[in-house]
Amino acid sequence: MMWAGFLQRAIMQGIPLLYGSTGEIITEKSGMLNLGIPGIMYVGGIGGVIGAFLYEQNAAVLNPLLAVLIPLLCSMTGSLLMGLIYSFLTVTLRANQNVTGLALTTFGVGFGNFFGGSLAKLTGSDVPSINLTATSAFFRTSLPFSDQLGWFGQIFLSHSFLAYAAIVIALLCSFILTKTRVGLHLRAVGENPATADAAGINVGKYKYLATCIGSMIAGLGGLYYVMDYANGVWSNDGFGDRGWLAIALVIFAVWRPNFGILGSILFGGLYIVHNYIRDLDVSGQELFKMLPYVVTILFLVIISIRSKREAQPPAHLGLPYFREER
Amino acid sequence: MPHSEQKVREPLFHIAKRDSIVWWKAWLIRGVVLLAALVFAGLVSFLLTKENPLRIYMTMLEGAFGTQRRIWGLMQNLAMLLCVSVAVTPAFKMRFWNIGAEGQVLIGGLATAACMILLGDKLPNPLLLLVMIAASVAAGAVWGVIPAFFRANWQTNETLFTLMMNYIAIQLVSFFTYKWSVPKGSGQVGVINRATHAGWLPSLGGHDYLINIIIVLLITFAMYVYLKYSKQGYEIAVVGESENTARYIGIPVKKVIIRTMLISGAICGISGLLMVAGTDHTISRDTAAGRGFTAIMVSWLAKFNSFYMILTSFLIVFLQKGATEISTAFSLNESFSDIITGIIIFFIISSEFFIQYSVRFRRKEAAAS
Question: Do B154 and A307 touch (CB under 8 A)?
Answer without folding.
Answer: yes
